[in-house]
Write a structure and sequence with these properties.
Layout (H helix, E strand, L loop, with lengths): L4 H16 L4 H33 L27
């Protein structure tokens, strides 16, 4: 499914509004922080992967490959913060 930038922006706005009506202010702030970090980290990893692949094409670095043992366990539980 391909969306133009206006459709994508509209979808993100609708999703944000739907989520925000179901969260407290603190929950909303935490979700925003977490998703911002996720987006930033994914962008960083995509950039690094592209750089490594380009270097590998030039013969300057080994190709970036993840083997299954290096990937996080998809069934791993994310621990919630314990109250102080």
């Amino acid at each position: 499914m391909t969306m133009d930038p206006c459709q994508q922006s509209t979808l993100i706005t609708l999703l944000s509004n739907a989520i925000s009506t179901r969260l407290t202010t603190d929950q909303l702030a935490k979700a925003a922080s977490l998703l911002t970090q996720l987006g930033t980290t994914l962008g960083f990893l995509a950039t690094q992967r592209a750089f490594c692949e380009e270097q590998a094409k030039k013969g300057q670095a080994p190709p970036l490959e993840l083997i299954e043992e290096e990937l996080p366990d998809p069934d791993a539980q994310i621990l919630e913060e314990s109250p102080l």
